[in-house]
Amino acid sequence: MILTLGVVTVLWADSKLQRIDALNDYPGRIGNTPGTTTLLVGTDSREGLTPEQQAELSTGSESDAGGKRTDTMMLVYTPRDGDRTMLISLPRDMLVDIPGYGENKLNAAYTFGGPALLTQTLEQQTGVHIDHYAEIGFGGFAGIVDAVGGVEICLDEPIQDPYAGLDLAPGCQILNGPQSLGFVRTRHGFAEQDLQRVRNQRQFLGSLMKTVMTPGNVLNPFTALPLLDAGAEAVTVDTGDHIWNLASIMRKLSGDPLTVTVPHDGMASGAVGSYLVWGPTTTGFFDAVAAGRTPGPEYLDTGP
User: Fold this and answer.
1) What is the rounded distance in angstroms from the CA atom of residue 149 to the CA atom of residue 253?
2) Based on CB atoms within 10 Å of each CB, which residue in 20, 70, 128, 200 is the most buried?
3) Average pLDDT by consecutive 10-residue portion of the chain (304 residues)?
């Protein structure tokens, strides 16, 4: 009876996932590469949020944002030989070749063509086949955090950012949904701006996954069911993905993954403004990933 109930619950949660064609075949698409790679995307979508909720989350309105954009892009990569899973941040200002649009910053690929164009751009630029896709917007992210009762973050310095509705003191503290959203969005006041933001995002995601996967949340139906409900309704996946693929990713991220920002070869300016250069260091990093290996230490500028 318990087993049957568990299967029914999993199938119910799987049926509530939003799905989109994110991993379409296209002419010349690279075949499977060794290891397993999942693209995680956080967007600034305000879909389903009331004006009051937009104010509470300090998101602004959809018209203020000028179209749906990516705030977060990460790869969850498990090498072929079973080495430690990597959580790889993709800086949104990295200059890439976007099919049909020419050179532009990476986050422009999503703005121009949504998930399908973003995954195609990354596959062609990196030589790495993307196996799974998961996306979440502002409201869904905050809802998942609140469903687990908040997430603990430890800060060395205070963070104040009125643009993100954020005012945090130094030290360890439990962040609620709106605070968590502000923490992963803020970049004002950091010397490295977006590069520091992606470090904060990795730190938070690791803490969130550890919180979600605790026995108190997984085994207690009074927390597990609301969490499944909030997560399933908030997350968009590829048409070929399922709730058990997400569970596998969560398990990997809760187990102390190696965290890293994709390396770049300096900054430059051009028609698209200031950007990060995709050079030999970046290519060397992804050559290792495409071969199913952990990139060598010379490519790893690890952070939290």
Assistant:
1) 19
2) 128
3) 53 78 94 94 61 46 52 89 87 94 95 95 97 83 81 86 82 88 74 70 80 71 69 84 87 85 93 94 95 86 52
Beta bridge partners, 95, equal 105
Residue type at 291 in one-letter notation: A
Listed in sequence order, the residues at least 6 apart from 182 whose beta carbon sits closer than 8 Å to its beta carbon are 58, 161, 164, 165, 166
Ramachandran category for residue 292: left, alpha or beta (phi over 0 → left; psi -120 to 50 → alpha): left
Q: How far is CA 274 from the centre of its chain?
A: 23
Quote the mean pLDDT of the chain: 81
Give the closest residue to 41 by CA, choosing from 133, 113, 179: 133
Q: Say which residues have a Cβ less than 8 Å from residue 127's Cβ, sequence separation at least 6.
A: 30, 33, 286, 287, 290
Rounded Cα–Cα distance for residues 150 and 179 (Å) = 9
- Using alpha carbons, select from 102, 133, 114, 103 the residue that is nearest to residue 39: 133
pLDDT value, residue 192: 65
Strand partners, 70: 43
**Rounded-to-10 torsion of CA 166, 169, 170, 173:** -80
Percent of the chain exceeding pLDDT 70 equals: 79
E-strand ranges in the chain read 18-20, 36-43, 70-78, 86-89, 95-98, 102-105, 132-136, 151-155, 159-161, 166-168, 171-175, 235-238, 258-261, 267-270, 273-276
Q: What token pair was written down for 153?
A: 């973050």
